[in-house]
Amino acid sequence: MPKSGNFTRRIVLASLAATLAVVAAGTAGAASSKRSATTLSGAGSTFVQPLVSQWISPLASAYGYELQYSGIGSGGGIAAVTARTVDFGASDAPLTPDQFTACKGCVQIPWALSATSVIYNLDGAKNLLHMNGPTLSKIFAGQITQWDDPAIKALNKGVNLPSTKIATVHRSDNSGTTYNFTEYLSSVSGSWKSQYGKGVAVNWPNGTGSRGSAGVAATVSQTPGGIGYVDVAYALKNHLKFFSMQNSSGKFATPGLKGILAAASSDQKPEATTNELSIVNPPKKFPLAYPIATYTYVIVPTSSPKAAELRKFLFWALTKGQSYGPKLLFQPIPKSVLVVAEKTIAKVKPAG
Amino acid sequence: MSSHGISPTDLSTSNLPRRRKVNLAMEVLATLAALIAVAILGIVVWSVAKRAAGALDLDLLTKDPVPFAFGPVKQGLANAFAGSFVLVGLATLMALPVGILVAVYLTEFAPPSVRTTVSLALDILNGVPAIVIGIFVFGLFVVGRGQSGWAGAFALSCLMLPLVARATMEVLILVPNSLREASLGLGVPRWRTTLSIVLPQTIGGILTGAVLAVARVAGETAPLLFTSSIVGTQTSWNPFHALQSIPVAIFELSESPDPQDHARAWAAAFVLLLFILFTSLGARWLATRSRRRLSASR
Amino acid sequence: MSSAELTPDAPRRPFTGRRVRPGDLILQLVAGLAAVAATVLVGLITWKVVEGARPSISEYGLGFVTDVVWSPAAGHELYGAGSFLFGTAITSLIALAIAAPLAIGIALYLTELAPRFLRGPITALVETLAAVPSVVIGLWGILVLGPILRDHVEPALHSGLGFIPLFGTPSDSGSSIFTAIIVLAIMILPIVSSISRELFLGVPGELKEGAFALGTTRWEMVRGVVFPYARGGIAAAMILGLGRAIGEAIAVTQVIGGGVFIHWNLFSNGDTLASKIAASYQGATSKLQVASLVYLALILLVFSLIMNLAAQWIVRRAARKQGITPQGIV
Fold first, then answer.
1. Is the separation of the CB atoms in A105 and A81 below 8 Å?
2. How far C217 CA sits from the closest chain A CA (Å)?
């Protein structure tokens, strides 16, 4: 063989060594997969992701479970748990009867409580401008297109609003936050209800679509004049301005713990089998309520190979886990809901 | 002569000053085009480098991400680097032997009709968009079973296979027939000839193909989006679970509102770019070398 | 290189009349199995995609391809590929229109004008552009290109050329069809350029010198000799570039903004077949929605296959004529 064969031979040996190293690493990893018995994988709502992220290390210290969570949107979470590609799904939008059937024996458990903030990016404007439901629905329907529209000015007397164009931002993926937001718009605007309705995705007439709450927050923060909707934790984390929303009693409420708690008082009884709760646009007798609050649910198969771990995890999430909520503006779940939730967890049993 | 684009009027000397001006204009445009191409590359690489500078430190490779951290926390993308290593490594392990064997079959054994069909299949496979491969592998391996590093690696190997096969075929063809004849004439069996005489001549070309294929899939996001994207934050080398990868990590970070996330995305992009550049350029240099050597030996 | 032909030197059938060793059979079997596996893989991919799309095909038939609607609202589900087909067409075609002249210009520069010492480095640089992963270009598109286009380029184009419906109101967020077009143009530029370069290199010297002997300028020589000679190959290169643009999902979904409408305004958002799949597939819940997304993938598959095969066929024909094997054709 020619002398340069030595060179190629060395390269061949080097790459063989590298490949073997990778195979060794992979097999070693596979061998140590005893750990996989205590990995809990979940996917879904980006709304609840800030809270779930806080749970990862305390849960590991408490039980040694490795929690893996991927925010792919509520729709994705429902799809993933239905296809059993994850151990649990998370969705802010309650399952429809069809989705319950498709999921083949899943239960839905409310495990967190927070609010959707309506964020905006307007140079020079202060935080907590005033907004109400009908005006907001006209904005997202494309009927109000500028910041100095009379309707917005009327809500914010004394504030100097520029003539900047409004750029709406919505979720491009199937989102429980969209469900919450459109449920609110449907309840305050008859024309929104008939034209667009509520759902994890609707036919937005205009605006930019972004993936995930993070995507919406990113787009609004990079778009002058932008208005979008995200879980309030994202607004907090990224220092985004959000509106103070007018509720049914005429007062302007912020998506803080008090506003969320007041909203939660409007529906304290989860539905019979679905555990569904709707606390959007609470009636007049809750003057402190923030009108776009929502519960978010964890979806678990009743028969699962990881039933024991899931029960421990969910119980922990509903009790100890709630204490990580307040700094992210997740209001700990009220007692009445907690009781029902815990009863539902008992339905999760080992497979086979 | 196919120069039917030249007409007598083109050559008239009375037109010469105008013709020279047109020529000059075209030469300027062509040079400009080349400058634009170089400029674009320069801008992209410089953008990445400049923005990566701040976040490029050892933490990127050694620390795992901490999502939704309040306050400054040391974090990095260790899980993505580990995952990419395993995914690409396993994909190469799957694609390389099959690609080489396909090439051997096509050049050494296949009758012309079979050769056409299989070559066509390879060309079709090469033309399938990566996102469709992702959907395919999702339907094949992920539904009911869950995402895994194996599924992601398999998706990547589908992309690598045509590249490896084609590169191997190119060099196998260059091996002179006289070599095969000589070996067979000496009584060496067919299989031994192929494996010990013909293939070793092509190692350089095969390696080039493999390295180019690796460079190609190291940056692929779409095939991993549905097969290995629901991941935890801790570094794992276990391909039976979904593994984070650098391209998917960059993809997710690019859509985040947090400038810190962007900084890490740039840093990861920079490392990825460096890796791909070195391997691509290195492979092409190897290719020119081995091709020169092979052709010279004919 | 599409490898159906081998050089005349290459071996043909296994030798007859020679004692066949078991080792020979084993190698042939194993290698043959690999070849079968590769072919079966292609069939499997096609079958899985068709099967996955079937619920949507049986629901909508071929009308799906032209329907401009995508309504996932529960109870009123209605899906159609029309707006994404439009998005794919408008982004890919305009990207090609931008990239092709540039690519040919680069190829001409590298083959005719560049000084010897520059040819290697610049060629390498252009090929390096091809190696940049799409997610990195997308990252750059979101954070660097988008804001520049939104703040400077789009308003300028709108105020200068606003009478053309293509240049309507500038986008608000920097994510738009226009950004996607620029990103795609950058991605297909190296492909078209390197194939064109190979083709131009393959033009026989005598033809070029013949033209010069007649007194043509360099440009006239290119126009009269190089272009006609390489015409088929350039067409193939452009088709390949188009195929690449059509199939690009990641970079496009990062910068295109997402929308289901048909607007002529390039500065609005939209979606292409590939970018819609990337954005929505993971979160699709209803069976019909998943099937419709796979239907989109089927349409995408059909188009990119047609493009890829057409281009390969043209290139193979041209290569046979010229007796070269064009490399670097991805």
1. no
2. 46
Q: Which residues of A touch C72 (CB under 8 A)?
A: 174, 199-201
Chains touching chain C at 3 or more Cβ pairs under 8 angstroms?
A, B
Cβ–Cβ of A12/B236 closer than 8 Å? no
C-alpha–C-alpha distance, residues B79 and B66, integer Å: 11
pLDDT, tens digit, 9 for 90 and up, residues C13-54: 555 445 677 888 888 899 999 999 999 999 999 999 999 999
Mean per-residue pLDDT, B42-57: 88
Interface of A with C in 171-190 (CB under 8 A): 172-175
Name the token pair of A333. Answer: 């779940």
Please, what's the largest Cα pairwise distance for chain B?
78
Q: CA–CA separation, B243 vs B224, rounded Å?
A: 9
pLDDT at C261 over 80: no
Q: Residue C7: what pLDDT?
A: 53
Task: Report CB contact under 8 Å: C102, B37.
Answer: yes
Residue A201 is given by DSSP the state: S
**C-alpha–C-alpha distance, residues A293 and A276, integer Å:** 14
Question: Which of B22, B98, B192 is nearest residue C23 as measured by Cβ atoms?
Answer: B192
Residues contacting A344, CB < 8 A, separation 6+: A107, A108, A109, A275
CA trace torsion A169, A173, A178, A182 (10° rounding): 90
Q: Please enumerate in sequence order all residues whose Cβ is within 8 A of that of A324, keeping only pairs 6 or more positions apart, or say none.
A: A51, A54, A55, A58, A330
Report pLDDT digits (tens) over C89-111: 999 999 999 999 999 999 999 99
Three-state SS for A294? Answer: strand
Taken as a whole, chain A contains a residue count of 352
Q: If residue C79 lies in a helix (H) or strand (E), which one and from where to where?
A: strand C78-79
Give me the interface pTM, i.e. the ipTM: 0.89
Alpha-carbon span C314 to C237, nearest angstrom: 9
Q: How far apart are CA C281 and CA C259, in angstroms?
A: 15
Q: Give the 3-state secondary structure of residue A199.
A: coil
Helix C82-108 to helix C177-201 angle (10° resolution) is 40
Contact state of B276 with C125 under an 8 Å Cβ cutoff: no
End-to-end CA distance of chain A: 63
Beta bridge pairs of residue A117:
A230
Beta strands in A92-146 (DSSP E): 106-120, 130-131
The pLDDT of C251-274, averaged and rounded, is: 88
Q: How many CB atoms lie within 10 A of CB C201?
A: 13
CA dist B191 and B180 (Å) reads: 11
Kindly report the length of chain B: 298
The reported pLDDT for the residue numbered C6 is 52
Average pLDDT of every residue of chain A: 88
Cα dihedral: B230, A50, A125, C151 (round 10)? -20
* Whole-Å CA distances, B230 to A57, A77, C258: 18, 10, 23
Which DSSP letter does residue C21 get? P
Question: How many of the other CB atoms lie within 10 Å of CB of C251?
Answer: 30
Q: Is C296 helix (H, G, I), strand (E, B) or coil?
A: helix
At A34 the pLDDT is 41
Which of A55, A49, A54, A47 lies closest to A315 in space, CA to CA? Answer: A55
Distance CA A228, CA B117 (A): 53
**Could you read off the pLDDT of A268-323 as tens digits, one per residue?**
889 888 999 999 999 999 999 999 999 999 999 999 888 999 999 999 999 999 99
Return the amino acid letter for A331: Q
- Residue B209 token pair: 């193909």
Structure-block tokens of residue C256: 């295109």
For residues C98 and C186, the answer to whether their CB atoms sit within 8 Å is: no
